[in-house]
Every structure is written in structure tokens, then in C-alpha cells.
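request received
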Amino acid sequence: MAQQPRLTLTGVVKSYGAVKAIRHADFELQPGQVHALVGENGAGKSTLIKIISGATAPDAGSVTYDGQSVTITSTVDAINLGIATVYQEPQLFGELTVAENIFMGREIVTRGRVDWAAQNDSVVKLLESLDLPAKLATATVASLSVATQQQVSIAKALAGDAKVLILDEPSAILTDAEIEVLFGVIRRLAGDGVAIIYISHRLDEVITIADQVTVMRDGATIGTYPVADMTVRRIAELMVGDALSENTEPRTAPEGDPVLELKSLARAGAFRDVSLQLRSGEILGLYGLIGSGVAEIAECIYGLTKASGGDIVVQGRPVAPKSPREAARNGIALLPANRKTEGMFSFQSIAFNVSIAHLQKLSLARAFVDRSGERSVVKDLMKRLAVRASDENQAVGTLSGGNAQKVMLARQLVERPKLLLLAEPTQGVDIGAKEEIHRIITELADNGTAVLMVTSDLQEALRMADRLLVVRAGTITAEFGPGARQADVLAAAAGDREGTASA
Amino acid sequence: MSTTLDPNASPAAAPVKARGRVLPAPVTPPEIALIGVLVVLWIALAAATPAFLSAGSVIPLLVEVAPVALIGIGMTFVIITGGIDVSVAGAIMVCSVITGKLMRDNAIPLWLCLVVAVATGAVLGLFNGVLIAYGRVHAIIITFGTANLFLFIGLRIFGSTPIAGMPNTLAWFGRGVDGRTVGVPNSFAITVILTAIAWWYLRHTPGGRHFFAVGGDPVAARLAGIRVQRRILTAYVITGLLVGLASIFTLAKGTSNLDQSVGSGQELAVIAAVVIGGTSIMGGRGSVLGTLLGALLVQTVKSGVIQLGWPSQLSDLFVGVFIVVAVGTDLLRRRARREP
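response:
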């Protein structure tokens, strides 16, 4: 007997302006099922989730809930239907107790006042159903570990009698042991008939926990498969499709001297035993999923955090940068991942942003900024990088993402760096600017700069890197050459245990 | 960390009742510390200058505390939501000068004075609240702007001369014998009663709890279905209403004259009381009881310094130290929790 699906989406379409976020999506969710939703960044997963959770409305297509056609126009609608979402970052109030967090916005009220005792009793029942200690009810959320906070988020979602639970990348912030606890909770909920949508980049987890997996690619659902028939590699292949990585003109990496060496670099709790060698003129890619430790490795090299073991050797000299300033003095130039919060002065002009790191070079007698010198250097760079702006006095905050990123790159080019560390260089940048940024990076490498590119954009990694190292679970697990297949790299990064052969 | 979950936690630990404090603590550690400091100070001052605990000294102290602690109730709401209001001084001037002029020229009765002052304050608070809740500009910028606007309005209404010769209509709120009930200044008694009501409201009603949610994490609050903007607006309107009432206290404790210095510096006195009272300047945490204690502490120090014959600048130094200690404690508390 075919069970009636809890939730069905048919022919859903969603555009943001000219961008088609979802071209066509079909999705069916059964009660008691753990249903994984996978796809690369930009495949349309988050938009689909937003539609289900009421954060945005589809342009076309139908949504059926328990056999009834429904229109979900707000998050409150979704909650009333029994669709609850646990966001990646816990949405909790640190200063308040767990019980109060769970009932915030839907307090139990008797005669105008919050019935604390009733709230606590019902939270205790809820916590026990999730195997959580009862004493948690009166603990302040800020005093709990991240993992526990996430479980509180799940409890909060379930307090509204949820029939559909959406977990958005729940494992990204958890340790392996904590993930096991989470899986226990998921299995118990599924056993009670809750339908669970599980979003994760980590395909090994998907294989472990999910019953069904729906794969999205380029804004469309390309199919739903029973997980029993799948392997990590097979899912990875479906995610990237047959699309070969775009043809890149083969670059012959010059055989320069090693500029950067990492020797068994480690930071407790983040990564361990990371060793690599980067030669001058080489572009080395470091690719890993969220939570793999790849971002932390980069932070450590440019001095934002300190290593707890191992060595960083720059041009033969061991260094231990304690701040980005020290990293810069040791010859490590950096293009930070989050330009808005790390390093960009939005209200200042392009000229200011470019020259801020080089005021000594651009100053007369080390005291006065040489304005005309500054202007000519900046103008020259703007031309070379094809920055589209009215002039060098335009505020960076008013530029498009791509142009702003080019300005940030220009800052690093005033003095041609020996070693350039790029973190997510083209995040939030349009296609045209991306091409140009890639061209500039290649040009720099051709002129002898050693480039270390940390990215979670797989196509970019494959296209740009002379060698590509894959980071998983805090250490380098595989190395690929320029001709690697996307599916192989993704499978290695996502945890295909047998697929770690180097190419 | 002991709260990290054990995957094998026994489900057999059957029906346990919630242990620990079910309610938020009625009196928080910073408040207990404040009470301690106050008691020690009072004992020390009484020992040093026997006149300190006499009625002639305590009553003026309470009369001075009343307007600061009263506005402090509203400011506590504001700071709990993560905002701030630095326009209080200007608002006091506008409320006082309007009421003062009406009183002098038209001999209006007490109740009408109250209505005029409170309504004026509410309008000013609403103005702040709308701009902050819907303008999406940080409260300090908005209220810094409105502070200057209110001062301008107040000074325009004053004209070039102080208001002189106001009738004794407000004596019930004043520092004289008419302003006391069983020896306690009426203005201070009203402040204590309103503090108690606000304390109960913030602690026991859903509406009150929502202020903490808004200051704790506005995004999460919105996702929880809380009307964030309305909460923020309400906080500034409450402050405005109380500024109106406090202006009556201010008019009443003065002489028959009102000059252009009215309200000056009060915004800092109020914020100092709130911060010393343990309300977190980052929002999400705080208590009106602490604010009342904070206001009492500040005024005790000021009176004490004067009565001991010390240079009066010393009281500013002490208040500064209290603020640093209060803010520092809050930051340390947060940091200690952030890094388990």
C-alpha cells in the first residue's frame, strides 16, 4: 500500500530577478523518512528549503501537505502546518534558560503571567524524549556547548509538534561524537513518524543516516534515490553531472624554489599533521568542505590563530605569525575570505583601500603620503585589473562585489608578493569578474608569485590549481593533478573512504 | 564540559522535575553586591558623619534619586532591547519648560500638569521609538540627533529668560513637608512602586520576557514570532512617559524658578544608574531593581562626598570606577562563558 506522502512539491520554480535559483524541482517526503538533500553550492538547496519553510514563496509549482494543497506564505504558516526548521547557527537567546528559549513567543500563560512551572514541566518531558538531562531546562543557554545548543534548537523545533523537521547542515559545527548523538536523535524522531529533511555537504553522513537522497544540480532536482543503492562516489557524480571541468589552457608551472612549507602543522581541535610545499610560480589549491578544517589552516598561516604544533617555513625561514601584520612582514600577502568584515574599508575610496597597506612605500620621507604617487599607482592598477568605477575616489562600498574584490586584490599587487594566500577569492563575485580575477592570479603566478588558494568552489579549484590538495576531517587526504575529475575530488572531500587514491 | 551530552545518557532517569531555578532569579548577583556596597557605605558614612542618617540628609537624597531612578526604569527597558537613549536631558527640558510655562501663566491644576508633562514626554519618546524601530539606524545616532533637536525646542520655548514665579501647585511631589507620606518623599515612593510594577512585568509576563529576547538576538526573536519593532518602540515610549513624570519631580523639587540648565547631565546619570545596576549594555539582560539600587548608590556617593567635605570631583571619579567595574564584570562574565 502506498503511504500518503507528508509533503510533495511539484514543478516548483523560483527566480530572483534575472537569476533562476530553481528551474524545476520535484520533491516528495514520506512520514518517518530521513530524506537527504544534496547538491553543490548554488544548486538550489537553500532556496528549496526556504520555500518549504515559508521564508520565500515559489513563482510556480504546487505544494501538497498531507494530501491537501497548501500555500505557505510565511514562516508562521509553515510552523502552524508542523514544518519546523533548525538553522545552521542555533537561533537562541544566550541570557535566557533553555525552557524559556523553547517557549519564547508561545509562552504558556495563566492569568496574564508566564506559567514558569508548567513550561518547565513540559520542557522536561520534551528533553527526556530526546534523552537529554532534565536539569537542562533551567540552564542558561550561553553556558551550554555548541552541540547541546543545537539539541536545544531541535527540542525547540519539536515543541511545536513538528511533523516535518528540516535540519540545515546540522553537523557542520559538531564533532564526530556529537554527530553520533545527533544521529541517535534523528533515528528516534523518524521512528516516531517525523519526516526529516537532512541537508549536508558530507556525503558519508548522508549514506549513514538517510533513507532517501534527492540530488540537485544547477537549480533542478535530478532525481531521488534510495540510499541503499548509492555510494558516496555515485552521489558525487550525480551532483557534478557529466560536465567536465572547463578546458583550461594547460599551464606549465615553473619549477621554482619552495616559498612556503608546512611541516606537520596542527591546531588542537581544528586540524592536524598538515604538510605541504609550495614553489614560486605555482598555484596550489586547498579544497575542503565546510567544517573540514581548511578555513582554519588558512587562518593559521596568516596569523589569525596560532598553531599548536608543527612549523610554517617561508622562504627557508621558520615563522610563527601571531597577527596578520606579522604574517605580512614575513612576506605572506593575504586576500581574506570575507572582504566585507575582514579588511575592506567600505566608506573609503578605492585609492585609500589600495594604499592603506603600503603607506610607507607611497610616502615621502616616511611621513607624508605622496598623493600623486598614490594616485598614479592606483590608477595603473585599476586599469590592469579592469576595475569598473568612476574614478579612484569612489567609495569601495558602492562597487559591485566583483569590483570590490578586484580592489582588494589590487592592494596585494602594489608590491608584488612572493607568497599570496587567497581565501575564497571569488565568493559572491559575478562570472565576468571571476574570469578577470582568475586571469590576474595566473598572471601573478607566471611572474613568480607562489599562490595558495583556499576555496570551497570545486570548479575554481580544478580550473586554477596546478596541484589540488583535499582536506577532510582536519588533514590532507588526497592530492590531484590538473586533469582530475570533479566527481573524484568531491568524493574524496565528502568522505569516500575507498576513493582517496592520489591521481 | 559537564553539559556536553553523553550518548549513553540513561533514559531510565524517569520523571525528574525541573531542578534549579524555575524562575529567573528574583535578585541577581550584581544586585546582591550592590545592596552589600550600599549597606557598607551607609554604615561607614553614618560612623563618619552622624548627620548622614538624619532625616534632613536622607530625604533630600531620596528626592534627588527619584527622577533618575524613575527614568532609569525606562532606560532599563531600552538597554535590555540593545538600544540606548541619550536624548533624556533634552526631553526633560522640553517637558519641564512646557509644563512650567503653563503653570505660571494659567495656574492649571496639578492633574493637568501631570497630563501635559507625561503626554509631552510620550510624544518625544514615540518620536525616538519610531525612528529607531523602523529607521534601522543605531539608537545612539538617532537619540544623539534628537537630543540636540529637543534642546533646541526647549531653549526656543524658554526664550531668553528663565521662568520665574511658578505657583506651588506641585508641592505634593516636592521636597517640603507637603511632599511626604509617613516621612517618605512621595516622588521616591512613586518611583519604588513603579519599579516594582516594571520588575513584575519584565519577570512574569510574556510581553516583558520578549524585551529580553529582542535584545538577546533580534533575528531569533523575529523567527520566534515576536514583534521586534513594536517591542523597541514600546521601550522608548515608556522612557518618554517616565521622563514626563520625572519632569514633574524636577519642577517640584526646585524653587519657583526654572532655568535653562534643567535636565543637563541627567542622561548620563540615568545611564550610569542602569549600567551600575547590572543591566548589560549589550542587551538581553538586566533588571529595574538593579537600576534603582544603582541610582541610590550614585546619589549616596555624591551626598557622602559633600558631607565629608571632600572635593566634589571625587564623586565623579567614584561613579566612573563603579561604571568600569560594572561593565567589566559583565564582559568578563560573557567571556568566561564563551570559552568553555
